[in-house]
Amino acid sequence: DVQLQASGGGSVQAGGSLRLSCVASGFNFEQYIIGWFRQAPGKEREGVSCMDGYDGRTVYADSVKGRFTISSDSAKKMVYLQMINLKPEDTAVYYCHTRLGHSDYWGQGTQVTVSS
To answer: What are residue 34's phi and psi, to 5 degrees?
Structure first.
């Protein structure tokens, strides 16, 4: 079974840092795109960053460019999202995501709260 398990959320003050982790199982993520979405209260889920597991290419939402970095450890089947200079508007539940064929898979979400 495909599974994604996210962790690493927490509460920080503006300007702080967090690193989210996502462990993937049940598929070879080096063959797929894996990334992070977030959903703030009352807002739609939005893409934050993703990485092509095959060639390592990365994409970032404009709102996080220069502050967030996505990386992976293929041996551990882990994907990370390093977040620095966090802002209150980054407050959301963050989800790890991948798509295999026509199916979307989501981790359970991890809460990030940034206070001003």
So the answer is: -130, 145
> Could you give the C-alpha distances from 70 to 12, 43, 82, 102, 116, in angstroms and in order?
19, 23, 6, 24, 24
Query: Over 90: is that where the pLDDT of 28 sits?
Result: no
Is 63's pLDDT higher than 90?
Answer: yes
Spatial CA neighbour of 17 closest among 64, 56, 50: 64
Cα–Cα distance, 1 to 15 (Å, whole number):
38
**What letter represents residue 35's amino acid?**
G
Query: What pLDDT score was predicted for residue 3?
Result: 95
pLDDT value of residue 88: 97
Q: Distances in Å between the alpha carbon of 1 and those of 4, 44, 64, 105?
A: 10, 27, 31, 10
- pLDDT at residue 105, rounded to an integer: 96
Residue with tokens 């927490």: 10
**8 A C-beta contact, residue 59 and residue 37:** no
Q: Are 25 and 46 in contact (CB under 8 A)?
A: no
Residue type, 52: D
Q: Which two tokens stand for residue 116?
A: 């001003």
